[in-house]
Amino acid sequence: MGTVSAPQSSITGSGHPEFDLTPGDLQTILSQALSTISPGTTVLAIVADKTRDDNTHILFPLVAQILADRRVAKFDALVAQGTHPAMSTQDKRNKIGSADSTALPGVGHIFNHNWADPSELVNLGFLSGDRVAEITGHLIEGPIELKVNNLLAPGRYDTVLIFGATAPHEVAGFSGGAKYFFPGVAGPELTHATHWLGAMAGIEKTIGRVETPTRRLFEAAADFVPARVISLSSVVTRDNGRLRTHALFCGDFRLAVRRAAEISSRVHIKYMGRKYKRVVALLDPHYEDLWVGGKASYRLGPVIEDGGELIIFAPQLTCISKTHGALIKRFGYAPLERIRELVAQSPELKENLCVAAHLAHVSFAGRRLADGTVVPRYSIVLASAVDADTCKQVNLKYMNPKTFRREDYGSDRDTLIVEQAGRDLYLVEPFAD
Fold first, then answer.
1. Taking the domains of the chain in order of start, what are their residue ranges?
2. Are residues 37 and 67 in contact, defined by beta-carbon separation less than 8 angstroms?
3. In the list 96, 184, 249, 403, which could disulfide-bond 259, CB 3.0-4.6 Å?
């Protein structure tokens, strides 16, 4: 297939699964995308946190120089960390491509986002209950306040740039675009609502699909952002440590992410033609807890047989979640049918629907036994620094990572071994719809 390109009146950029865009290619695209930013403009960049592997460290210095040449008045950045812990100063420098502490031209402050501190949030408005029901097909109902980081309040910045990679995502279908506002720099209301919506829609009907109820909700909320928004949507892969940019589309946040998703679907989705009794997931090493490391289950579940097994080998993983560990331990991973019962029974879990969604997503899906009981479709074995008691508490099986040997599984035709698990989505075959 040919290069995916977009009308110049709407977005700028290019991409193809075989492309390997150079810094020069990227600079040309960015220069055109930012050509309408006037001198004296104030600009805020929204960047992903360190749990997302993208090319911000390449794009950001290029953008900084372009904006400096255009004599903007201010250029700051805000980390779209959702509910993840704050990043250190060094982590933030690494993210924007100034790891050696060299100052980038015109760059001011790099702010962390604190989703749980009301003093750092501003209300941009609300989506009515009728609108929420319409957007989500009545999967969720009731009005939602649109609270975001107060840097997005009217008058703070003229232009917002979204730096983000597009890949299959368990809540949105594909990451990128408006997701960097909601829940990236949002308050608890929409963060909980969007995660729970993704769970209610069903992970197998969400991940790897472009048009989802959750994306519609993100985008309806993003229309309330008062600044001009330019999305810089990339598609990247990493092979033996080398980052490759397959695509970069810039402009309208709806159009750019959809163009990027066209490329991502051909780069980040692997079709296996069958299911396996066992999948061994060698977890991507930059996932430090199961809150993000759960991607091994999200993205491999479709190719695991009913009653099968997922082994997650992650010696670097030290805890279930740095932020939500206590709640996860209290309720444990379980299929959506059980989590919905727990939400109905527990006011605490109902107030923390992003945790409820995580519990269902990691379990992935349920299967009904002859007696009507719903159990996980497959079991999950965690070989990590998380101890056996904690694994049992959250309904996972434990394996001592020191006893794990890859060669024990390599000759079994019913076992699939996946390197850097959590990066790509594995499916039996393309979606029928």
1. 4-267, 272-427
2. yes
3. 249
Four-way CATH pick for 4-267: 3.30.2320.30, 3.90.1280.20, 3.20.20.370, 3.40.50.11440: 3.40.50.11440
Per-residue tokens: 262: 């066209």
For residue 151, give Cα distances in angstroms to 9, 34, 91, 233.
29, 21, 21, 22
Element (H, E) at 341: helix 336-345
Structure tokens at 137: 């097909």
Architecture of domain 272-427: Alpha-Beta Complex (3.90)
Q: What is the pLDDT of residues 137-146, one digit of tens each?
A: 999 989 999 9
Residues of the chain short of pLDDT 70, as ranges, are: 1-9, 51, 85, 101-102, 433
CA 395, CA 381: separation in Å to the nearest integer?
10
213-237 residue pLDDT tens? 999 999 999 999 999 999 999 999 9
Residue 6 CB: number of other CB atoms within 10 A? 19
Residue 5, pLDDT score = 40
Q: What is the DSSP string of 42-78?
A: EEEEEEE-TTS--SHHHHHHHHHHHHHHTT-SEEEEE
